[in-house]
Automatic annotation (TrEMBL):
This is DUF2306 domain-containing protein. The keyword Transmembrane helix applies. Keywords: Membrane, Transmembrane, Transmembrane helix. It comes from Bythopirellula goksoeyrii. The chain crosses the membrane at residues 38-58, 78-97, 103-123, 135-153, 165-185. It comes from the Bacteria. Pfam families: DUF2306.
Length: 194
């Protein structure tokens, strides 16, 4: 996952200044400048930060050794998700290159990510830390959808399968979230049956 994240970061050079022949910006020149531009740059700059912050925040050893730092970074991450990643994702979803199916998928992803971040923050404030960890892990899984989406795209390219992007917009976040919930369910059942 780290490798894909680094590859994503390397593509940023295609966006400063915008290269409308690059993979993601191809065909977006007619509506790029204006509100979309602000949403796009907010998204591509805040997204990687929230991924890296999430990785640090999920570390039990970092949390135990530096609890005040964990709280501060957690607040910054949640604010970044709620004020930058989610609104920019919602705006960009309106312009999904492959149409409404992908656009609705990305909009639902943005909303789900915001809900998980807000619930995680709320549970931390309430000192319900087990629930806090669950909500923030859900949030992190949703944030990782950008990486999963690129993996699906790469696999589609290798297999020479066309037209996968609209369904990948949904699979990239629903499948990992379902897997996470199933793992938790399995762990609950195995704990009860002991």
């Amino acid at each position: 996952m780290l490798q894909t994240t680094i590859v994503v970061l390397l593509t940023i050079r295609d966006y400063f200044p915008p290269n409308f022949h690059s993979d993601f910006l191809n065909g977006r020149s007619r509506y790029f400048f204006g509100a979309y531009q602000w949403a796009f740059y907010a998204h591509i700059l805040s997204g990687p930060f929230t991924l890296f912050a999430g990785l640090v925040l999920l570390s039990d050893s970092v949390r135990r050794r530096f609890p005040a730092w964990h709280r501060r970074l957690g607040r910054v991450q949640v604010l970044c998700v709620l004020l930058l990643v989610t609104p920019s994702g919602l705006w960009m979803a309106r312009f999904a290159a492959t149409g409404a199916v992908a656009g609705v998928g990305f909009a639902m992803l943005a909303i789900a990510t915001a809900l998980c971040a807000a619930m995680g923050w709320r549970r931390a404030v309430q000192r319900r830390f087990d629930e806090h960890r669950q909500w923030m892990l859900r949030c992190y899984v949703l944030l990782c959808s950008a990486v999963v989406l690129r993996k699906i795209g790469g696999l589609s390219e290798i297999l020479e399968v066309e037209g996968t992007y609209p369904i990948a917009a949904w699979i990239s976040w629903l499948l990992p979230l379902i897997v996470l919930e199933c793992l938790w369910l399995r762990n609950r059942f195995s704990t009860v049956n002991r």
